[in-house]
C-alpha cells in the first residue's frame, strides 16, 4: 500500500500548459504517474503531446473528472489564481489537491483550506514539493530517481530535506514521501500523515522532518505518545537560527522560547522519538533502529527453533 497516492490514482494538472506545469508533467509521466488530463479554460479541447503521450486539456476540473475519472489534481498556478483553482477543484469533488505554488497570500490559503475541508478534499501544501509513492505514482516535483520502493514513511515540512533523506535512505526505500510545506497555513499536517502511516500495513517506521516556528511538532509529539505504535525518527531544522527572524519558510519564525528547535526536540524525545542532530545522523538512527529490529527478530526466531 501507500498513503494518499497509489498506482490507481488518476491525476490531472491545473496549469499543465505553463512552463513549470509542462516540465513537471513530463517528469511525473516518466515516473509512471497516470496523468489523464490538464486544465486550462483558454485551451479547452486541445491536446498536448508529452514525450509521445497525448494528454487532453479540459476547460474545468469538473469536466476533466467527468471525462477521465480523475481523483487527484496537482496545481501549478500563479499565486493570485491559487484560491480560485483550489476552490474549483474542491467544488468538483476531487479527493486530493496537491498545491505546489508558493507565495500564496495567507488569507487566500485560509479561505481555500476551509473550503476544501468542508467538501472533504484533502489539500497537501501549499508551497510544497508534493508527494511520491516510489514505483507507483508521483504528484508534484519530487525527483523520482533518488530512491526506491520500501517500508519507510516520510513526512516533511522541507522540500530539500525531503530529497536529502530520500537519498540518504535510498538503500531501504519508502512507502510514501509527503512534503507538507512550511507555510503558516497548510492542509495536511504531520499528524495527518502520521495517522495514515500508522494505519498502512506496508509502512514499518516513519521519518518526520520539522523545523523551527509554530507548535506543529509539539502537537505531533503528543499524538505520537498517545496513538503511534510504529517507531518514529525525527529531524528538526533550525538549531542555529536567531530568535525573532523568519528563516526560509514563512512559518519558520521563533518568538522567545516558543517554537525553538530545542523545545521541539525535547517534546519529541519525551514521546519516545529519536531525534537526529543532522540529516545524516537522522538516517543513521534509522539504520541503527532497523539493525536492532533485525537482531531482535533473529533472536525471536532462534528461540522458536
UniProtKB/TrEMBL annotation:
The keyword Glycoprotein does not apply. PANTHER family: SUCCINATE--COA LIGASE [ADP_GDP-FORMING] SUBUNIT ALPHA, MITOCHONDRIAL (PTHR11117:SF2), SUCCINYL-COA LIGASE SUBUNIT ALPHA (PTHR11117). The active site is at residue 249. It comes from Streptomyces lonegramiae. NCBIfam families: PRK05678.1, sucCoAalpha. Heterotetramer of two alpha and two beta subunits. CoA binds at residues 17-20, 43, 100-102. It comes from the Bacteria. It catalyses: GTP + succinate + CoA = succinyl-CoA + GDP + phosphate; succinate + ATP + CoA = succinyl-CoA + ADP + phosphate. This is Succinate--CoA ligase [ADP-forming] subunit alpha. The gene is sucD. Keywords: Ligase, Nucleotide-binding, Tricarboxylic acid cycle. Coiled coil: none annotated. Its EC number is 6.2.1.5. Substrate binds at residue 163. Belongs to the succinate/malate CoA ligase alpha subunit family.
Amino acid at each position: 500500500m501507500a498513503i494518499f497516492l497509489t498506482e490507481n490514482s488518476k491525476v490531472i494538472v491545473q496549469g499543465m500548459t505553463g512552463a513549470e506545469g509542462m516540465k513537471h508533467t513530463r517528469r511525473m509521466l516518466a515516473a509512471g504517474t497516470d496523468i489523464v488530463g490538464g486544465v486550462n479554460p483558454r485551451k479547452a479541447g486541445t491536446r498536448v503531446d508529452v514525450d509521445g503521450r497525448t494528454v487532453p486539456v479540459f476547460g474545468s476540473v469538473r469536466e476533466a473528472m467527468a471525462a477521465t475519472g480523475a481523483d487527484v489534481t496537482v496545481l501549478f498556478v500563479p499565486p493570485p489564481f491559487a484560491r480560485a483553482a483550489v476552490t474549483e477543484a474542491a467544488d468538483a469533488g476531487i479527493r486530493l489537491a496537491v498545491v505546489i505554488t508558493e507565495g500564496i497570500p495567507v488569507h487566500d490559503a485560509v479561505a481555500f483550506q476551509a473550503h476544501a475541508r468542508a467538501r472533504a478534499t484533502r489539500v497537501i501544501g501549499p508551497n510544497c514539493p508534493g508527494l511520491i509513492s516510489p514505483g507507483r505514482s508521483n504528484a508534484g516535483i519530487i525527483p523520482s530517481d533518488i530512491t526506491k520502493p520500501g517500508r519507510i514513511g516520510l513526512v516533511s515540512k522541507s522540500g530539500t530535506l525531503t530529497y536529502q533523506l530520500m537519498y540518504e535512505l535510498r538503500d531501504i526505500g519508502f512507502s510514501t514521501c509527503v512534503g507538507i510545506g512550511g507555510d503558516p497555513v497548510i492542509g495536511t499536517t504531520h499528524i495527518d500523515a502520521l495517522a495514515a502511516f500508522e494505519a498502512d500495513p506496508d509502512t514499518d517506521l516513519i521519518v518526520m522532518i520539522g523545523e523551527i516556528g509554530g507548535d506543529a511538532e509539539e502537537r505531533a509529539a503528543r499524538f505520537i505518545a498517545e496513538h503511534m505504535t510504529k517507531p518514529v525518527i525525527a529531524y528538526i531544522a533550525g538549531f542555529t537560527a536567531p530568535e525573532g527572524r523568519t528563516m526560509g519558510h514563512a512559518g519558520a519564525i521563533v518568538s522567545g522560547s516558543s517554537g525553538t528547535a530545542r523545545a521541539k526536540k525535547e517534546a519529541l524525545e519525551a514521546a519516545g522519538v529519536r531525534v537526529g542532530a543532522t540529516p545524516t545522523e537522522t538516517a543513521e538512527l534509522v539504520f541503527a533502529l532497523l539493525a536492532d529490529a533485525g537482531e531482535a527478530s533473529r533472536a525471536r526466531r532462534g528461540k522458536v527453533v
